[in-house]
Structure formats: structure tokens, C-alpha cells
Amino acid sequence: xxxxxxxxxxxxxSMYSGISGMRNFQTKLDVIGNxxxxxxxxxxxxxxxxxxxxxxxxxxxxxxxxxxxxxGTNPRQVGLGSxxxxxxxxxxxxxxxxxxxxxxxxxxxxxxxxxxDSETGGTTYYSRAGNxxxxxxxxxxxANGLYLLDDSDPGSRIQIAPDSQSFSIGQAGVVNVIDSAxxxxxxxxxxxxxxxxxxxxxxxxxxxxxxxxxxxxxxxxTPTNDGTGALVAGTLEMSNVDLxxxxxxxxxxxxxxxxxxxxxxxxxxxxxELVNLKR
Length: 279
What we know:
alpha+beta; Helix Hairpins; five-stranded antiparallel sheet; three-stranded antiparallel sheet
């Protein structure tokens, strides 16, 4: 009877291990699904899940060799399943797609655009999505109306006069404008930010990031300085999602989920046999 109860306990252990595996592969599929849904999102950085094993149950400890006796033995342990270790954001460079639109800006290298939700400072966000527009007053804004910030002051905006003849943006972020009188002016220089740990940034939706305790403080600079990349006008940085990689990972996750369900059904069948030992 004691051995039968031990067998039941062992089967329950394998069932709970299978449940933990199913839960983790479900999270992996969630991340893969989000990556695929954002395959055409400008500036999107893909996610990645990693797993780690849970604490192992000690069956027998290790022992050292005995003088003039037997040799040492290794520990005997049974693992209790897996757990989610990390969900990483992979900040690798996405490809730059030509659009030939003056306010489409791609960053070739490191760095993030600095954006503000207020005319007087407000909250600062960071983004790799470079599709910008002009509002009614000539300020450069993103798709949600956040102001693109200038480098001259932490919260200053960049304004192009509505009656200007033309404008261009250089690799170093300098905005050059031909005003209504035909004179060349420069209303500002686009500001970038860099971080000691970009993977520590928190996604806020709408292609935006915010600083966290582990990302390090935002360091303000201009393009091509302090290790940041150059601006490439007329291009957009596309998502760094590789569809072939995502589909491969999807197959692995699907088969992993399937294998863990098989562990549960097999353990259930053995439990049924144990219960039916006495009829």
C-alpha cells in the first residue's frame, strides 16, 4: 500500500510538471502571436521568451569517496517542471524602407526619438518609429500628436513655419528651412536619447517606450554623437520580426505544448491502472 501511494505521488508530480510546461508554451505562443501581428509595424522590436527549470526534489544527496572504500556518488534529483524566466525585447536594427517622404526618418544605428505629450514639457516618451507629421502650427509631431523634441532645451519643440517654401533634415538631425523670403534658417536639431540598458525600457503601446529603474536614465544627445546612429530622411525603420524564425518557433511551441499534454494523459492512464489494482 505504501508503494502504491508513492506511485500516485510520483504520477501527480509528472502531471504538475506537464501543466507548468503547457503554461509556459502558451505564453511563448502569445509572444510569437504578438510578433507576427506587428510584422509591418514601423520601429517595432520583437519579443522572446526563455524558460528555466524549477527547484528539484532531492532523492539522495551527493557523497564523496571513502578512503580505502567505495568512490563518490552523484546527487539524485527529480525536477518539478519549468517556469518562465524572461520575456525579452530584442532591440536589433530593423531594415530601412525607402518612402521618399521628407518627414519619414529612420535611425541607422542606436538611439531613440524623444517625444513629449505637452507644450510645456510633460511626460517624455521614446520611440524608434520615425513617421512624423506637421500640425496646424507647423510643429513636428508623431501619429498621435506627440511633439518631437529639439536638442537645445530638454522640452523644446521644433516648428517649421507654415509659409516656408521647403525644408530638409540632415543626418545629424539639423532641420534646414527655406522661409517665405527665400532665406535659409534652422529652427532646431532633432534630439535623440540613448540608454545604458535599452532592453530595460518598458513598452507603452503606440510604438512608445518609457524609462524604468533598470534601463538607466535617458541620455540626451544628437544623431551621430555619443554612439547614436545617423538620421536617414525619406526612410522608415521597419519591424525586426523575421517571419521564418517566428514560424519555426511556433512549430516548436506547438509541439512542446502537445508533448506536455501527452505527459498529463499518460500520467492519468497510469493513475487509472493504480486505482484499478483492487477491483
